[in-house]
Amino acid sequence: FLNFIQHHRQSPSACSDLLTHPVTLNVGGHLYTTSISTLQRYPDSMLGAMFRGDFPTTRDAQGNYFIDRDGTLFRYILNFLRTSELTLPVDFMEMDLLRKEADFYQIEPLIQCLSDPKPLYPLDTFEQVVELSSTRKLSKYSNPVAVIITQLTITTKVHSLLEGISNSFTKWNKHMMDTRDCQVSFTFGPCDHHQEVSLRVHLMDYITKQGFTIRNTRVHHMSERANENTVEHHWTFCRLAYKVED
């Protein structure tokens, strides 16, 4: 792929198509899909050199580009490449680690942002976060692959949103596993796992209609047992809210 880019630098149309073509990265076990043009946003960075063909690349068993770095923090790296803006959760506690990642990838504008002490948001606002996760356990030895169990979880400190979900999604109440202070979970068995997809679509629509936008998506694969695979999908939604004086 990168050799093709190098050999067709003189063909603008071919290069343009390749630069917008999706590419998947495995960063520390977390999969991210983006475009070559996003990864080359800052040509002098390590990623810019890597996907220009000037830097050696490694592939995982599935053929994805592999980078042995912090997969969770890469979401912030990738979002910065997409928007040239640094946006972090209000309760973000890993600033030192993120600085090290920015230094590793040699993204100079991000390094400068992380060194700038000014607040990320207006002082009278804060960021509200909703995490939506789908955990699907799959049998390794069935053909076609059989779903053993699926769990859909919504986690947020916005209690009004959780209450709205509990009141608006009564159709799926028989699947509700648990309701806690900051979490609502639904569990689907082998025969009705397809309903999880329907619920997820409706939930994402409901959350976005409350003013939240998707900040990040990620996929994580793992094998916990000899006969079972687990696939996790995560969506992070955010919105700004004004602080209310007591």
From TrEMBL:
<dbReference type="Pfam" id="PF02214">
    <property type="entry name" value="BTB_2"/>
</dbReference>
<dbReference type="GO" id="GO:0051260">
    <property type="term" value="P:protein homooligomerization"/>
</dbReference>
<dbReference type="InterPro" id="IPR000210">
    <property type="entry name" value="BTB/POZ_dom"/>
</dbReference>
<protein>
    <submittedName>
        <fullName>Potassium channel tetramerization domain containing 6b</fullName>
    </submittedName>
</protein>
<dbReference type="InterPro" id="IPR003131">
    <property type="entry name" value="T1-type_BTB"/>
</dbReference>
<feature type="domain" description="BTB">
    <location>
        <begin position="21"/>
        <end position="122"/>
    </location>
</feature>
<dbReference type="InterPro" id="IPR011333">
    <property type="entry name" value="SKP1/BTB/POZ_sf"/>
</dbReference>
